[in-house]
Amino acid sequence: MNISVSELIVRYLERLGIDHIFGMPGAHVLPIYDRLHDSGVKSVLVKHEQGAAFMAGGYARVSNRPAACIATAGPGATNLITGIANAYAERLPVLAITGETSTYIFGRGGLQESSGEGGAIDQGALFAGITRYHKLVERTDYLGQVLKQATHALLGRDPGPVLLSIPYNVQKEEVDGRVLEQLHFPHKAVIPHTEPVTALAELMRAARNPVIVAGYGCIRAGAREVVASLSEAFHIPVATSLKAKGVVAEGTPLSLGCLGVTSSGDAYRYLVDHADLLVFLGAGFNERTSYLWDAKLLAGKKIAQVDRDSAQLGRVFQPDVAICGDIRAVMEDLFATLQADGMPPKPGERLDDHRAAVTPHATDGATGPEEAFQLIRSFFGRLAQRFPRNALVFDDNIVFAQSYLDVSDRNRYFPNSGISSLGHAIPAAIGARCFAKDSPTFAILGDGGFQMCCMEMMTAVNYGIPLNVVVINNGTLSLIRKNQFQLYGERYIDCDFTNPDFGLLAKAFGVAHYRIETEAELDAMFENADLTGAINLIEILLDKHAFPRYLSAR
Q: Would you say residue 487 has pLDDT above 60?
């Protein structure tokens, strides 16, 4: 039976299991919107297309399923770019659908044309470097093959964003609806190990003070449980990258916490002073995690690396043992091997001595007294205590949560990694909450980043999506001011600003507002606020002259 291309695209979304699509309509994409009207895919109207791409990314991160966003031609499409670039960096399966002018006016100066013809902007070229697959669909005779390519890019071994740009007239043409029956969804088979775990098991047996360095690959592979079990069985401490906070519940005896230039430094000191074997599991050892590739972290140690991506093996350092394979399968094999060998637990005196020497929640240093950060530290402590499970935290700020927020193995923490774009947390959290409907959800931002995306709070209001937006208010772009203090002789320029009255802004949005200046006000907020089913704007005040001492520029 013949159906319109717009109908086919909507059915394709349904075949992918997509139940929400985030975007903003325009004339060149209205045929698809018209077919969404009666479909099982719920459209969410955003305030800016960048927010749509971030929402789709947040949905994909939480659900581990494809997500979708939609925009019209020209500026609608170009506004998606930052969010799609972030999805590309995070390897998120985000399908972006854009409209285009009709093919018969390509190159003639059509309104918002982005076909690349006749001097028009070339939308395909703009997205080429930030998608796994992109296509301007000018005809219907190869549409089935286009959808096959898109599906494999979204769901294959190395997923990522896809762009389908469909001209207005093509959306209205008819095709055989049986095209969708030809789609084959890639099977995600377990990747066999390139090497047996024998050599890794030998390193583990020989080491006196091994440490597991868990990266986000552990979470992607579903390896949290086996890593925690191996750690407990053999008394092996675990440090994580920023994205992997919570692989082993933080605050527990074998968790060293988070590695990274903005962390407390606890994990760094243990690795440098005590470890004789580092086992990297799906950790890229990037600039943040490696302390700008500090050689002291790896000096005098044996190194093992396990990753599903062979390109990661030896990319930054030369491991003594390298295994390409599914991290969970490798760790299950290793655990069984060590149990069968009867390997005893590792001695704990080094870890005990290290714990005794560490001041709880010490920071890497601050220009002002530590008391300046007490309110933020208390907020994160109460957050972890109040929500030990099922919470989602999207964090654009990173600096404070990395040290102060203990993430349990039953919560999810989503730092703004990827391309580290400010204005990410609110829309990403909205997208996530559309999937995880019962999860208390927090978006944490500085006041500068908040003003890049605060309009999306009205998206949450319009659709009744519960959300807690936490704004750290210090009237400055903290990272810029910190660098100008440390590196540029306090020659401040374009970092300070005046904020709106957040209370009046919350009132205009129709959401609850909490201004936190004291511990008592913080206690009252946690006691009285509906942090699960309401939309809240929580403002925490911070002195602009107090900031961490770490160096973030070289």
A: yes
